[in-house]
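User: Can you model how 4'-phosphopantetheine sits in this protein?
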Amino acid sequence: MPHTAIFPGSFDPIHNGHLDLIDRACRLFDRVVIAILVNDQKKPLFSAEERIEMLRELLADRPRCQVERFSGLLVDFARQAGAVAIVRGLRTAADFDYELPMTLMNRQMEPVLETLFLATKRELGFVSSRLLKEVVALGRSVDELVPPLVARALEQKLAPRT
Ligand code: PNS
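Assistant: Here's the modeled complex, given as structure tokens:
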């Protein structure tokens, strides 16, 4: 039976750390659904449509990947998608502290759905969407940390005009 995993997140925007984890999840599962959280209360920089478009373009050459949006509970989305696991990345102990209560709550609601943590690539362990946005807004480039398409999109939205 083919196995599906969910890789959920805000992806505001996606960066090389996410892409590395997605590639590694694709080696473990037959299908990986990249699930973009749509929650306007979080005031994302990129709209849901912009994030979906970016992810679909970036993942177009990965046949195991499928990009979808979701709102509401992740476990409900995972069940509808027929997933056996949620995949999350861990960079630091702070990530673990943030993730564990969510994982236990998800298990409380959906006991057979496993959460799998993949340790980030060491050289990308400091990369977060929040810091990328801060750096671009303050005038520096993040070209080495995101795909070119994302670098351009960040600059269009945030780079200070001279
Ligand atoms: O990239 P992020 O913002 O760290 O991703 C967080 C995400 C989307 C995984 C988390 O906020 C989530 O699962 N939200 C959906 C709502 C939900 O299921 N809440 C209960 C979690 S215990």
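A couple of observations from the model: The CA atoms of residues 17 and 124 lie 6 Å apart. The chain is about 40% helix and 20% strand.
User: Helpful, thanks.
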